[in-house]
Amino acid sequence: MTLPKQVDDGIHEIDGKRYMGDGRGGWQPEELIKPQHKLEDETVRKVLGYALELSDRIRRFLEHTFDDIGDYEAILAQEYGTTKGGTKGNKTFMTVDQPYKLEVRVADRVDFGPELAEAKKLIDECLNEWAAESRAEVRALVTNAFNTEKSGQINRSEIFMLLRLDIEDARWQRAMEAIRDAMRTVGSKTYVRAYHRESFDGQWRAVPLDIAKMGATS
Q: 106, 126, 109, 108: which is closest to 178 by C-alpha?
């Protein structure tokens, strides 16, 4: 099996004999490795080689994209005295015939301050009093939002979903206000997204660059 350049074959020669790592920092003679394990090894190395190559190409694509957009904006400002984009840095670029467009979006990175603990206390009071009357999905949403077992961080997307719930209880409303007070903007990240459509009035379709969203269908 021919492997991509990014990945070696895992074979190491020691005193003229061929060995492969044993996964524990040691070495094992190649001839003692079962054929099915060698086949699995080769398959993984092949896929990872292409994955690493693709990752490098995407990284270079993003670098070139921001360079190209920056060059365009510099010319726009110098030659025509104008700029694109709103106050938050979001921008849209489009071809003249409009089947292709680029969107640049700036997303704030949000963290939460100590007010979040007070919000959790108020929410727990509501759920305990509502008991069986509270909806199971609300309880599940709260549990997921404040679950810190895995990484020590609350689930931001679930926290934002709590803010969208229409619950009139005064304590719940105070809890939501505490969440809003707890929110801190700690930075931002810039994303670029590409779109195309078949006709001038057709539906825009994103050009997928996320391998997880391009999974094989069956």
A: 126
Q: Which of 94, 3, 16 is nearest to 45 (CA)?
A: 3
pLDDT of residue 47: 92
DSSP one-letter code for 204: -
* Residue showing tokens 């849209």: 92
* Per-residue CA distances from 123 to 1, 40, 80, 117, 178 (Å): 58, 50, 55, 10, 11
Distance CA 85, CA 73 (A): 10
The pair phi, psi for residue 15, each rounded to 5°, is: 55, 40
Instruction: Identify the burial level of 95 via C-beta atoms within 10 angstroms of its C-beta, where 0-12 means exposed, 13-18 middle and 19 or more buried.
Output: exposed
Q: Which residues of the chain have pLDDT under 70?
A: 1-6, 86-87, 131-135, 148-153, 213-218
Q: What values do phi and psi take at 26, rounded to 5? A: -105, -170
Q: What local confidence, expressed as pLDDT, does residue 1 receive?
A: 59
